[in-house]
Every structure is written in C-alpha cells, then in structure tokens.
C-alpha cells in the first residue's frame, strides 16, 4: 500500500511503526462502505474489512467521539511512558480515525492479536499459571499510570472532548452509569452529590455526612470488566498489556477511581485483583457516603438533587 508521499512502505518502516499500513488503510477507506457494513448489526463493533481485517471498528452515538478522544489521550500518555521506561509494556490501541455518518460515530482503531485476561484465566497454559499475579499487577499498574498523566488544559469533570454536551460522566455512581448533567467544575459536582447526601440521610439525626472531593482531576479508568484487559506477547517475549474500551473513562477527582475499586463488591477475578493490588493506595474517606448517594441515584428520578 502506498505511503502518504506515494512510495511503498519499506520493511524497516513496518518494524519501526507496525501500525503504518493499518493507519494508511483507515485514512483511505470508504465511509459509505463501512456504514453499509454496520447496518442491522447486533453488536456495535466489527473487524474490517470482514474478508481480511486490518482495523477494528466501534460505532454508536455521539458519546463515541468522547470515548475516542479519551482513548487518544491514554494512548499518547502510555507511549510517552514507554519511551521513558523501557520496562513498561502497557499499551492502548491506537485510534486512526473518527467520523460521523448519518448520526452514527465510527472509531477506527488498531486491530489486536491479543487474549482477554478473563479468557486466559480459563486456560491451563503453563505460562499463564506461572505468571498470573504478574499479569494482574500489570493491570493495576496500567490503571495507576493512567491516573498520573498530566491533565489537559481546559479539562472539566468528565471526558476530555471538544463538545461540551459530550462531557457527561460515565460512571457506576450514577443512575444507568451516566451523570444527569455536565459539571463545569469539581465544586459543581461536589455540590450536587452533597444535595443528594442530604436527602439520603434526612431521617438520621444530626448533620448528614458530606462528600469532600479532591481538588484536582485525574484520569479515571473505571470499567474493570475482564474483557477490557488483553494480553499479547511482545517481540522480546515479554507479556504486553492492552487496555481497551474507554467509554467509562473520565477526568475526575481521585475518589471516583477509589469508588470503582471499593464502592462495590468485586465482580469477578479482575476486580478482586485490582482491589488487592491498587486499593490500599486510594483514598477511602468518601466511600460510605458515595455508596448511599449511589443507591439513591439508582432508585430515583434522573434529575435527583438538581
């Protein structure tokens, strides 16, 4: 396939940039052809083109733009981390292209040859058995690394994306895992939570407990589904972790990451290991009141406390 300047890619180019051919394909592919492929599909994703896949495609509503933007931020941060630390084997699939057609937003990204941690856990492969703890340590390290990235200028609570309407927080705290409004500041978010806390504790004597959020935002990756952590073997023979699915990633106070770890009983082996490896490093002072707030969100109207 020709490169941007018209020349065929050299073998050395592929070694330096293994995504070069897929990236060029993504930029040249027909939007209409892809759109037709996705009509009446049950699952909102596919490997494309079907006969000889080169890229992975996710598609859906306007929130897919925010998901793609958060994935790009994470990809760039981990790329920088690997340059600084050659021992870092934590990756995010590269996003090659995003476009919207007929109200559907498409994310075209790197196609992985990797296995989800939940599938590895079902095997008796000796490599997995011997390195199980190491794999889960890598997952915890990846979530922690993402939380330490510099916050982009202009970020507000929620996804870092251009359109304000798409900055709705996707998080398990809220009803249907989506905040009812876009919050302009951390204080706006804290004020809303504390209005709900007042309602949650109205039958108890004394002043209600309050949420006290951290005053800085951090990257919170909070979807601990085992299918979102995939492993491959790198060229050097070491395990390589890919973190996927950034629909529920946002810039939030650290207590929101802590709530994802401590707020609910671990659901599956991956969540349990993340709590074991990462939990003690996270603040827990807001957990109980956030649990009470979340319960009230789930059983109430969407606009509770607004």
UniProtKB/TrEMBL annotation:
Pfam family, one: APH
Domain Aminoglycoside phosphotransferase: 74-251
Classification via Gene3D superfamilies: 3.90.1200.10
Name under which the protein is recorded: Aminoglycoside phosphotransferase domain-containing protein
């Amino acid at each position: 396939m020709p490169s941007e300047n018209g020349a065929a890619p050299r073998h050395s180019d592929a070694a330096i940039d293994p995504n070069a051919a897929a990236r060029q394909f993504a930029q040249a592919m027909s939007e209409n052809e892809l759109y037709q492929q996705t009509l009446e599909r049950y699952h909102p994703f596919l490997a494309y083109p079907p006969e000889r896949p080169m890229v992975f495609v996710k598609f859906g509503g306007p929130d897919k733009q925010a998901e793609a933007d958060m994935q790009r931020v994470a990809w760039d941060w981990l790329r920088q981390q690997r340059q600084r630390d050659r021992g870092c084997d934590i990756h995010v699939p590269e996003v090659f292209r995003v476009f919207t057609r007929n109200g559907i937003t498409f994310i075209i990204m790197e196609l992985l040859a990797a296995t989800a941690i939940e599938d590895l856990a079902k095997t008796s492969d000796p490599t997995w058995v011997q390195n199980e703890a190491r794999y889960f340590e890598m997952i915890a390290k990846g979530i922690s690394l993402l939380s330490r990235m510099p916050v982009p200028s202009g970020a507000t609570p929620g996804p870092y994306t251009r359109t304000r309407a798409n900055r709705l927080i996707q998080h398990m705290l809220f009803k249907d895992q989506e905040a009812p409004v876009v919050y302009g500041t951390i204080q706006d978010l804290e004020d809303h939570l504390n209005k709900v806390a007042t309602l949650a504790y109205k039958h108890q004597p004394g002043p209600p407990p309050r949420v006290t959020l951290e005053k800085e935002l951090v990257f919170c990756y909070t979807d601990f589904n085992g299918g979102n952590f995939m492993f491959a073997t790198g060229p050097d023979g070491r395990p390589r972790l890919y973190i996927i699915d950034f629909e529920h990633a946002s810039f939030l106070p650290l207590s929101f990451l802590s709530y994802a770890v401590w707020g609910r009983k671990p659901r599956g082996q991956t969540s349990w290991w993340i709590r074991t490896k990462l939990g003690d490093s996270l603040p827990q002072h807001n957990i109980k009141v956030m649990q009470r707030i979340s319960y009230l969100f789930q059983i109430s109207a969407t606009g509770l406390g607004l």
